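Record type: monomer structure entry
Structure origin: computed from sequence
Chain ID: A
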Amino acid sequence: MRTLAALAALTLVSLALAADAYACSCLPVDLERDLPKADAAMIGSVLERRTTETTRVYLFRVEQVYRGELDSSRVEVETPRDGAACGLELAVGQRVGLLLDRQGQRLHSTLCSQVDPSDFLALTNVEDNTFPPINRGGIIVGVVVLGLGTFLLVRKARSYRRLR
């Protein structure tokens, strides 16, 4: 009985002393619902990432703007420092779609505003402006056709020289 009481007391003390736990929770992005509410929307690639005491700032190369106006082809987006506070967690070079809120001169975004680039493309019927895949088969066929044409042309030229 004493061990049960001691266990219950220990459990109560540990619950009372436990620190607050933080986690990000948000609804999945629905572009038809959320895009009209955003100040701007874009697809971009992360060029640089800086962390301050409370925020993280990403520098993006803008590939496509879907809403609003962005001042240049490179924009800085501010977000909370970590994922628990709904901050973006992106690697340099990562390509992502974002819904952006303008607060003064700064652009802000969160995990709750992150969109797969293909979702933007599907919604807006805009073609993806990334480089198309290389058609290796077409290159091989083209080289073979050009080589065969060159061979036949040289052969024909030699036969005309013999006739002279």
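Annotation 1: Residues 89 and 107 are 16 Å apart (CA to CA).
Annotation 2: The two ends are 119 Å apart (CA to CA).
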